[in-house]
Design brief:
The chain has eleven helices and eleven strands. It has helices at residues 14-30, 37-43, 52-68, 91-94, 103-115, 119-128, 156-165, 239-242, 258-265, 289-299, 309-323; strands at 73-79, 82-89, 169-174, 180-193, 196-203, 208-213, 217-223, 250-257, 273-274, 279-286, 303-307. The chain is globular. It starts with 13 loop residues before the first helix and ends with a helix.
């Protein structure tokens, strides 16, 4: 079976959902004024569905999930003259209290950071954690693990720091067609989408907002001015305006037996409906029919894709490839 037919994601859209929640938190935390529902629909990457009712259901689920996780999403008037309500996250209420961890807990965090490939990004933060320096087993060395998952990206720590301090940066950048260029950028944000990190910012060389894949930045990222000198992001520019287009989110119909219903339901939009025999009908959102097929095959023979046609075809191709020659 080819890589395209063997998705690593166990549920359709689960990585999209994580990206959408992260983008929502960042947008509500960084916005200068509360964002209305309409603005969230238009500006936050991961939304933008043509069906307004589907967007509202998704947004209400996301909002409830974030609040269950302790994220303080407030509903407040857009401004003192406008009674329209909007959403925002007050950074003062979203900060974590000081942590006092045992040496074993610090080691576990360091191990997790190393395994996920984020050790260079988190090392300074781990060293700042409050621990008892006299406790046995406390050392400055973090454990090294020879396992790395593709969650890190080149230049991510330096660009995060530049974004936080509003410092313009310059770097060499290789375009999609292989040309080597030089860019000077005011960093407005970093976005993770479909397994890649992007820097979103104002490109001085193009006099426009652009997005840059971090894995295409060659050489070092160098400061192009003092901290605080980068221009502020324009509120009217949404992430989707400068990031490459993704396939639109679509609805698929999946049938599942009772034995697979609990797992299938976790990826469903709405409640399952009973159909023929022991089968239940579910609706789920997907962008890539191959990923949807791979997810359904994990539940086979207790789950099948029945619509739309291209997703059904991808499911049957993947099932045939998995079965091998007869």
């Amino acid at each position: 079976m080819s890589d395209a037919e063997t998705p690593s994601d166990p549920r359709p859209g689960s990585s999209d959902r994580l990206e959408r929640l992260l983008n929502l938190v960042i947008a509500l935390r960084e916005t200068r004024r509360p964002m209305t529902t309409r603005e969230i629909h238009e500006r936050v990457a991961g939304y933008g569905q043509q069906d307004w009712a589907a967007f509202r259901r998704m947004f209400e689920r996301d909002k409830a999930d974030l609040r269950d996780l302790g994220v303080p999403i407030a509903v407040v008037p857009v401004d003192r003259w406008d009674p329209t309500e909007g959403y925002r996250i007050d950074p003062r209420h979203a900060e974590l209290p000081p942590l006092a961890l045992e040496p074993e807990e610090v080691t576990a965090l360091s191990l997790a950071a190393s395994v996920t490939g984020l050790d260079t990004l988190t090392r300074s933060g781990l060293r700042k954690l409050e621990i008892d320096a006299d406790a046995p087993g406390v050392t400055d060395a973090a454990p090294q693990v020879g396992v790395e998952l593709p969650l890190a990206a080149p230049h991510l720590p330096s660009l995060l720091a530049a974004h936080r301090t509003r410092t313009p940066v310059t770097f060499a950048y290789r375009t999609a067609d292989g040309r080597d260029t030089s860019r000077t950028v005011d960093p407005h944000g970093l976005v993770h989408r479909s397994g890649r990190w992007y820097l979103v910012g104002y490109d001085h060389d193009r006099a426009a907002d652009r997005a840059f894949r971090l894995d295409r930045i060659t050489g070092d990222v160098v400061h192009a001015g003092p901290p605080g000198s980068a221009g502020a992001a324009l509120e009217s520019v949404a992430v989707d305006d400068v990031l490459p287009e993704r396939p639109p989110a679509r609805s698929a119909e999946v049938w599942a037996r009772q034995t697979a219903l609990a797992e299938a339901r976790a990826a469903a939009d709405g409640e399952p409906e009973p159909v023929e025999g022991a089968w239940w009908r579910l609706q789920t959102t997907f962008r890539d029919p191959h990923r949807l097929a791979g997810w359904a095959l994990r539940l086979a023979p207790d789950a099948v894709v029945v619509a739309p046609p291209d997703a059904v075809a991808a499911f049957h191709r993947a099932a045939t490839a998995l079965a091998g020659p007869q």
